[in-house]
């Protein structure tokens, strides 16, 4: 068996608030293999956002180890973490986080600037991923000229542009209507089918059920970890 893409061992994360220590993650053990499609769920205060920040190398644990793609990232300094984030992780956020006065093409190409690619290589790759998310005809549009769903597609293309090990999506349908949410989840299904590892953070059961594995957190520990048959996205919605 190949080594897991993500291996977290006894991860704890405490925060000091005044004179008090808040124990948010209380010893998490987790393995995620390359090519998995995982949903991370939990009520507010469960620790899922803290765990997502650790998985995304936006934060480091108080104790425990995190091996990402063979590298121990748990003790890395900020500049090392920034490099890992740019190479290994593609982020998709609820609020899209696009530069407002910049075209879709330049928004998508942005991570490649930090990775040191030439302008022609950046534009070529950004064009490829915009085609992949069906936005080839919107490359020269700025975010305010795009619908919410189109903006999220730009954000997904930007997440894919550096060919990361992991796509990490935080409530990616939180600002979208149900029809557009369905389209975005279909796109994540396609991205996963192309071999990408997808980790989805959501509080919505119906969104989580697009994933093949659901990890539920409660009070800083993993409450359940189940692998299931994926729901067909084409199935009729009943309700």
Poorly predicted spans: 233-239
Please tally the β strands and state the result: 10
Radius of gyration: 18 Å
Q: Please name the CATH topology.
A: Rossmann fold
Number of domain modules: 1
Helix content: 25-40%
How far apart the termini lie comes to 42 Å
Regarding CATH, which class? Alpha Beta
DSSP summary: helix tally: 7
General form: globular
- Mean pLDDT across residues: 92
Which structural class fits the helix and strand makeup? alpha/beta
Strand content: 25-35%
Strand order in the largest sheet = 6-7-8-3-9-10
H and E order:
EEEHEEHEHHHEHEHEE
Name the CATH superfamily assignment: P-loop containing nucleotide triphosphate hydrolases
Helix/strand layout:
Blueprint: E1 6-17, E2 20-32, E3 37-41, H1 48-55, E4 63-68, E5 71-72, H2 78-88, E6 89-93, H3 104-114, H4 119-132, H5 148-160, E7 166-170, H6 178-193, E8 197-201, H7 205-208, E9 213-218, E10 221-227
Parallel strand pairs: 3-8, 3-9, 6-7, 7-8
Antiparallel strand pairs: 1-2, 1-4, 4-5, 9-10
